[in-house]
């Protein structure tokens, strides 16, 4: 009972904190947009900029509220966001909420499978490496993880594209489906075929940190007295790693996976760009390059929510796992 | 037992310094080779006369890669130093009062909750591009994790017995900060900056690859690779492979050095 109460109180305080952080994210990103030297009216008009007279420009600015002080614009925007109105994306000519919804649906398949794959493989490799410190398997796996941790995400994607799509021709070179076919008509198998390389490269990169982290936990466990005791009882190394080690090493891995959703999303931004996959990442880059301010702001808020919830889950897992933290004895 | 990692780190540092010196001096002995176009030798594969091949305008890829690496190095170094400076000042600021501490923590949480790359896009957008904008953007996104470490370190050392004793002897606040707290933080800052460095380089490359940061005519690694994307399906593999490989080797060398140094200190 008491634990339940504490958990509820903890959760409530964390959710309050999350809302405060989101508000700050909104303020910071809005402030950054206001700082930009790019004129919002120019960005809105695009190539028709030259055909518009100064009077018309002033009218547009007035109508869109660009001439109001920054604080007024911010509170105006915030009120709209809170009521669910995210604005109009001029590069996609669609409401921002629709753009995000469509794009995120497509990115979710990529993000989720890469996340799961990275977690599972990272855990397996980390446990395999850490259960026998200094062995050739350990050296090989850690060396591999160090190299991938230093690899530029988009470069790995380019190499994969070069090898599998261009040279071997096993996978398509771009997009989420064949050209000229409507999205609804693409069958799941074709969709998967287009997703394989992006998922594999994204997972490969996310895997490195999880592998190294799990390995470190596993090495620490194999040196512990628990492991020594088990060794003394005659248990084999595999037995100890399998029965005890996994429990020690898997929770940190899962926690880390939840805490690194931001990096996963950042990676997807680059990978979607390389594979021309029409997901949220590609939309983010387009919004940044072509100064679609409402879309960029909404994506910043959306991803902050996404990452914060991941962090919240990571924290919650720690609490559940370690009663010392839950009791505040730390 | 403690000597071996230090010796290893020293040897490694020597080799690294040599390579860095070579890289940074390349600006002088390369001249305008990275930008020199040879129209009779466009898209040539690697050979004895064109070591790493040439690009679509007949420019030597090896020279462009070197120039790009040297630019990445400068941007990474400046961003890492600036980021460390921000982290150190804000962590110290947080020590002054509990209100400031709460504000700094809130700022750290805020910046950590937005994916790095999106924050980079936002900041680069706000500053309007250019090398300086890239440096500032990378520095502004990378200080929070280090600031967190430094703040925790300061919190633990502030109540350490030797600080309390020093205070008991009537030493002033400034004396304590200068003679006790800063020397304790310095190794952390050094390692922190070194760990930030490879991250900063990777993010600089990513940002320029997306086309946000630098002028497309500037030979940065990200620009070279974005250029290579257009010729990838044509089978011009060297354009994509070599600049990335150079970047990977540079990042790996710095990363390993940082790890060695952390072990040695």
Regions with little confidence, pLDDT below 50 for 5+ residues of chain B = none
Number of helices of chain B: 9
For the record, the CATH class of the largest domain in chain A is Mainly Alpha
How many domains of chain A? 2
Q: What's the number of extended β-strand segments of chain B? A: 0
CA distance, first residue to last residue of chain A: 22 Å
Per the CATH scheme, the topology name of chain B is MetI-like fold
Q: What portion of residues of chain A is helical?
A: over 70%
Task: List unreliable stretches of 5+ residues of chain A.
Answer: none
Please, what is the oligomeric state?
A: heterodimer
Strand order of the largest sheet of chain A: 1-2
**CATH architecture call of chain B:** Orthogonal Bundle
Main sheet attributes: strand count, strand direction, barrel closure of chain B: none
Largest interface: A-B, 52 and 45 residues
Average pLDDT level of chain A: 85
Briefly note the structural class of the backbone of chain B. mainly alpha
Largest sheet of chain A: 2 strands, antiparallel
Shape of chain B: elongated
User: Radius of gyration of chain B over alpha carbons?
Assistant: 22 Å
Q: How many independent structural domains of chain B? A: 1
Distance between the termini of chain B: 13 Å
Structure description:
The complex is a heterodimer of chains A (330) and B (265). Chain A is built from 14 helices and two strands, in the order H-H-H-H-E-E-H-H-H-H-H-H-H-H-H-H. The model of chain A has no long low-confidence stretch (mean pLDDT 85). Chain A has helices spanning 2-35, 40-45, 54-64, 70-82, 96-131, 136-149, 153-167, 188-222, 225-232, 237-259, 261-274, 280-289, 293-321, 323-326, and strands at 88-89, 94-95. In chain A, a hairpin with a 4-residue loop joins strand 1 (88-89) and strand 2. Chain A has a two-stranded antiparallel sheet. Chain B is an all-alpha fold and 265 residues long. Chain B has a single domain (4-26, 57-264), classed as Orthogonal Bundle (MetI-like fold). Chain B is 78% helix and 0% strand. Chain B has helices at 3-30, 61-96, 98-113, 116-127, 131-158, 161-168, 173-210, 221-232, 237-264. In chain B, helix 6 (161-168) packs across helix 7. The radius of gyration of chain B is 22 Å and the shape is elongated. Chain B starts with a helix and ends with a helix.
């Amino acid at each position: 009972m008491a634990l339940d109460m504490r958990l509820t109180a903890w959760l409530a305080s964390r959710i309050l904190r999350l809302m405060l952080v989101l508000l700050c994210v909104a303020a910071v990103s809005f402030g950054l947009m206001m700082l930009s030297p790019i004129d919002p009216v120019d960005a809105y008009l695009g190539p028709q900029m030259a055909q518009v007279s100064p009077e018309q420009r002033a009218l547009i600015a007035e109508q869109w509220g660009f001439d109001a002080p920054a604080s007024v614009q911010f509170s105006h925007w915030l009120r709209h966001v809170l009521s669910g109105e995210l604005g109009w994306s001029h590069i996609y000519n669609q409401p921002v909420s629709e753009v995000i919804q469509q794009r995120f649906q497509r990115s979710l398949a990529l993000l989720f499978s890469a996340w799961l794959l990275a977690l599972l493989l990272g855990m397996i490799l980390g446990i395999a490496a850490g259960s026998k410190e200094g062995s050739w398997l350990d050296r090989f796996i850690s060396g591999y993880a160090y190299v991938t941790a230093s690899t530029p995400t988009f470069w790995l994607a380019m190499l994969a594209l070069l090898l599998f799509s261009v040279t071997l021709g096993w996978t398509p070179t771009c997009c989420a489906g064949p050209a000229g076919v409507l999205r609804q008509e693409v069958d799941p198998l074709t969709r998967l075929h287009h997703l394989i390389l992006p998922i594999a490269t994204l997972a490969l990169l996310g895997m490195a940190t999880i592998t190294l982290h799990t390995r470190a936990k596993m090495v620490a466990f194999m040196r512990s007295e628990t492991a020594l005791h088990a060794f003394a009882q005659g248990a084999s190394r595999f037995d100890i790693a399998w029965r005890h080690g996994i429990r020690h090493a898997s929770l940190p891995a899962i926690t880390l996976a939840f805490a690194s959703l931001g990096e996963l999303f950042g990676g997807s931004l680059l990978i979607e760009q390389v594979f021309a996959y029409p997901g949220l990442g590609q939309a983010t880059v387009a919004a940044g390059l072509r100064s679609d301010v409402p879309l960029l702001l909404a994506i910043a808020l959306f991803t902050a929510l996404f990452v914060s919830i991941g962090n919240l889950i990571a924290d919650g897992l720690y609490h559940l796992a370690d009663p010392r933290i839950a009791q505040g004895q730390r | 037992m403690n000597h071996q990692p230090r010796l290893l780190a020293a040897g490694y540092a020597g080799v690294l310094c040599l390579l860095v010196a070579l890289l940074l001096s390349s600006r002088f002995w390369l001249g305008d080779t990275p930008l020199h176009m040879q129209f009779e030798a466009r898209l040539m594969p690697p050979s004895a006369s064109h070591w790493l091949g040439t690009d679509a305008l007949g420019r030597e890829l090896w020279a462009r890669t070197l120039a790009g690496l040297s630019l990445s190095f400068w941007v990474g170094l400046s961003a890492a130093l600036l980021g460390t400076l921000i982290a150190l000042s804000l962590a110290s600021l947080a020590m002054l009062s509990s209100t400031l501490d709460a504000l700094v923590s809130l700022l750290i949480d805020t910046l950590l909750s937005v994916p790095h790359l999106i924050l980079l896009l936002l900041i680069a957008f706000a500053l309007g591009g250019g090398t300086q904008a890239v440096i500032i953007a990378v520095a502004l996104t990378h200080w929070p994790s280090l600031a967190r470490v430094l703040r925790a370190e300061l919190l633990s050392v502030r109540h350490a017995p030797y600080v309390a004793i020093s205070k008991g002897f009537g030493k002033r606040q400034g004396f304590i900060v200068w003679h006790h707290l800063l020397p304790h933080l310095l190794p952390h800052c050094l390692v922190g900056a070194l760990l930030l460095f490879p991250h900063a380089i990777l993010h600089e490359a990513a940002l320029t690859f997306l086309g946000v940061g630098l002028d497309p005519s500037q030979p940065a690694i990200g620009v070279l690779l974005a250029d290579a994307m257009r010729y990838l399906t044509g089978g011009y593999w060297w354009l994509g492979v070599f600049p990335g490989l150079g970047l990977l080797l540079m990042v790996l060398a710095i990363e390993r050095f940082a790890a060695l140094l952390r072990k040695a200190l």
